[in-house]
Amino acid sequence: MNDIILHHYPQSPVSEKVRIAFGLKGLAWRSVTVPRLPPKPDLMPLTGGYRRAPVMQIGADIYCDTQCILRALEQRFPDPSFFPEGNPGLVWALSRWTDGELLDLAVRLVLGAGAESLPADFARDRGRLYLGPDQTVGDLKADLPNIIGQLRAAFAWIESSIERNGGFVLGPQPSLADALVYYLAWFIRGRWPQGPSFLAQFPALVSWESKLRDREHGDVAAMESTEALDIAQRSETVTTEGDDAEDPQGLRCGDRLAVVPAVDGGDPVVHGRLRYADRETVVLIHEHARVGQVCLHFPRVGYRITRA
Q: Domains in the chain, start-ordered, CATH in brackets?
């Protein structure tokens, strides 16, 4: 079996979600560090232009967005399960809040609080990515009390769940739900100067953070980006062909498709031929001279999929 390879960078909060998930499953993986800002010359050949971190690679299968990454980990490495209490549908529904509104608030907090100290190119890039075309990082500073008030209420809900459920978000054992929340606390604690004092309001959550932090990130070893590209080139996808007769868009294998995040962050559009589609996922065939033929896995939720 090919190694798990994560293309990420240390400061990425969304990558921390996956790193903690590796720790929950006790997995060994290889780490490829990518630049925080485009261009990303050793990532784009793999992804067809998808620029966000993290990206997971297993051989010639490239998983874009943490929805696909985490589903693939559960399918390939089912024990221990991400869902010890059952209810995977509930956890995925929770992810739409944590990865949507709650992440948006955390990013706005960190960008707004650091508006005067952020490098200009980083502020422009992340402002466009997370705030859309019409708002700047500078606009956030005046809104910080409102942002903090919303986060305070949200973390109070999480604190209550941890207390009621025996130490973790959904029960006495850690689950994917804990990774979905932990990375936001990690981001706020590490990237907002007032983060530690803000989180100190929630003692059960602070204790919960420590328990997850103790699990670390699994067994990790560094890898050069060129080696990851070589692995893709000499590997073959394990993704079978297939489509859904009841697909509401009528997607069929071989269709030329375009995929882009549904929220306008200025992301490049990724193109490819459809290899597989079901209710949750589309998989595109992508070809590049540096990597040969690979399969790009995208979630349906949160993405716009159209015929090219």
A: 4-80+220-307 (3.40.30.110), 88-215 (1.20.1050.10)
pLDDT 10s digits, 250-295: 999 999 999 999 999 999 999 999 999 999 999 999 999 999 999 9
Identity of residue 221: A
pLDDT for residue 236: 97
- At 145, give phi and psi (nearest 5°): -60, -40
Q: Is 273 exposed, middle or buried (0-12, 13-18, 19+ CB in 10 A)?
A: middle
